[in-house]
Design goal:
CATH superfamily of the largest domain: Type I PLP-dependent aspartate aminotransferase-like (Major domain)
CATH class of the largest domain: Alpha Beta
Helix content: 40-55%
Strand order of the largest sheet: 2-8-7-6-5-3-4
Shape: globular
Distance between the termini: 30 Å
Strand content: 5-15%
Number of domains: 2
Number of strands: 12
Radius of gyration: 21 Å
Length: 388
């Protein structure tokens, strides 16, 4: 069934359309400049130049040096590489890892996999806004702690974590600190030096770049065991021929994001506030996430006595694309682990929607959502009442 006369995409946190400038940057490496960047001839050196320039652009995006950037196949690999690499570098008894309850599954699942194999794991709770308390991190550290992994911008509720405070604690106690900045880098300022992070994960497709390419920042002087073994690519830290077209696209996406960041953050933030204001006027709506320290483009709202699946289907029939949380768990009918960690009442938890705004979101689209949502919500609530 086709949408009824409109097409509104408000799921930018799941993925973004590739920017035209990114597509243009990728094209030569899908055609004439096809060389292997490890080759010494001119074809290889042309490819090597593209990889080097992209590495510089990604490094500038987060305030790093280019030699500190490792290209990966995406944020999931970056998170796995950081966590496994840090833990397996420290071959000591009773190794201990600290993370938070609202981390992405690409962090939580590797941590739980390690826990099953003898690594001690502490999963810290969050407050009602989804923030980990830095003092709780401090208290959780033991002499055996080898890694702290806390995200910056939450992918479901948009809350920004206190990573600079946690970084200072980690540095003071001599513990490696990993931060998942997949949702925030290129949207809000990210500074690995100011934050005191040792490892930081990035993804291109969340920032108008291609899918299947990401990066891991590794602070100079920090050693982690390689996640993929093979050739000597990425300074021996990640074997495998580099995905040159995607890397070139990531570099272009990073350059564009950095250039327009302040203006775009203000524009998207204003649209977010317009949406939040309209949603707050709906009876039984509850906004989730921190009221101030949050990403400009994510709005998470729970509706009492409704269910997410019915709301999403009804909106989709109206041509409006949203989500109930992370795209990685979109097949589940249960409230997400992020919403569960906030401690929402059951009447609200099952009726949660995430609207995520981006580069091509307009005022007209926001107003379309605010026009349609109350109309589709009413019959869904009536149906739920009849079932009780």
């Amino acid at each position: 069934m086709q949408p009824r006369g409109r097409s509104v995409y408000l799921d930018y946190a799941a993925t973004t359309p590739v920017d035209p400038g990114v597509r243009l940057a990728m094209q030569p490496y899908l055609a004439d400049r096809f060389g292997n960047p490890g080759s010494v001839h001119q074809f290889g050196q042309a490819a090597r130049g593209a990889v080097d320039e992209a590495r510089k652009a990604v490094a500038r995006l987060v305030g790093a040096e280019s030699k500190e950037i490792i290209f990966t196949a995406g944020a999931t690999e970056s998170n796995n590489a950081a966590i496994f690499g840090a833990v397996y570098t420290h071959e000591v008894p009773d190794r201990h890892v600290i993370t938070g309850a609202t981390e992405h599954h690409a962090v939580l699942e590797p941590c739980r996999w390690l826990e099953k194999r003898g690594v001690h794991l502490t999963v810290l709770p969050v407050d009602e806004h989804g923030r980990v308390d830095p003092d709780a991190v401090r208290r959780a550290i033991t002499p055996q702690t080898v890694l702290i992994s806390i995200m910056h911008g939450n992918n479901e509720i948009g809350t920004l974590g206190p990573v600079a405070e946690i970084g200072a604690i980690a540095r003071e106690r001599g513990v490696l600190f990993h931060c998942d900045a997949t949702q925030s880098a290129g949207i809000v300022p990210v500074d690995v030096r100011a934050w005191g992070v040792d490892l930081l994960s990035l993804s291109a497709h969340k920032r108008y770049g291609p899918k299947g390419i990401g990066a891991l920042y590794v602070r100079s002087g920090v050693h982690i065991e390689p996640f993929l073994h093979g050739g000597s690519q990425e300074r021996g830290r990640r074997g495998g021929t580099e995905n040159v077209p995607a890397i070139a696209g990531f570099g272009a996406a990073a350059r564009i994001a950095l250039e327009i960041l302040p203006e775009e953050a203000r524009r998207v933030g204003a649209l977010r506030d317009r949406l939040v204001g309209g949603l707050a006027a709906i009876d039984g709506a509850r906004l989730n996430g921190h009221p101030r320290d949050r990403l400009p483009g994510i709005v998470n709202v729970s509706f009492a006595d409704a269910d997410s699946e019915s709301l999403l289907l009804a909106l989709d029939l109206e041509g409006i694309a949203a989500s109930s949380g992370s795209a990685c768990t979109s097949g589940s009918l249960e409230p997400s682990h992020v919403i569960a960690a906030l401690g929402l009442p059951e009447a609200y938890a099952s009726g949660t929607l995430r609207f995520s705004l981006g580069r091509w979101t307009t005022v007209h689209e926001i107003d379309a959502v605010l026009d349609v949502l109350p109309k589709v919500l009413l019959p869904i609530r009536r149906a739920a009442a009849r079932q009780r």
